[in-house]
Design a protein that fits this description.
This protein has a six-stranded parallel sheet, with helices on both faces. The protein has two domains: about 140 residues, HAD superfamily/HAD-like (Rossmann fold); about 60 residues, DNA polymerase, domain 1 (Orthogonal Bundle). It is an alpha/beta fold. α6 links the parallel β2 and β3. The chain contains ten helices and six strands. α1 packs across α4.
Length: about 230
Amino acid sequence: MRSYCNRLLMINLLLFDLDGTLFDTAPGIANAFNNLMKEFGENPVDEKIITSFIGSGLKELLLNLDNKLAHRLGELSELEKGFHRYYSQNIVAESPLFPGVVEFLQEWPHKIAVVSNKSEHYVRELVYKSELRQFHWERLIGGNSLPTKKPHPEPLREVMTHAQVKPENCLMIGDGLADMVAAQQAGIKSVAVSFGYSHINELIRSGAHATIAHYKELSKVIRDLS
């Protein structure tokens, strides 16, 4: 808390994306998908290709990957079931937190929430089975929590309403275009992380107000944006 006690901050609610922002979930997602490929008798897909499609939710991920494979994988509903079967086995073990997340949150004295396009039950499992369970989260929103998901601004607005915080007092932290666009549409500032799954220059062009390469940089960015 000492990092923030010298001045009154304008920003007092942080909205975090999850995949590629709080957790490095790409290895687990890639392993689950390639286990599915083995089941279908297909060759494994390069992890970099799989990672490039992370961020919009499972259906979009599978549709994009199936398109890469010339639509050889059958019905989407069956793909989803197969993916969930493999992914649920090792989701926590294969999804490490990014360096500095816990240390930053231990210093942060204000409100926090997760706004992800990942299924809500996975969001909750990762948060509550990791070191992040020690913190009070205003909301844990997944891609199926509401009728709309990022880049629509409604999930961000839902958190702000719940936390009774105005847009000018919020900050979105994410690694995807959906995060930057949703923040812009919701009228809040955004910070792009360079260690996630999108090209940082694309995020800057999409309206990110600042960037960080490590969570140890976030405190200064918050003070600069307040």
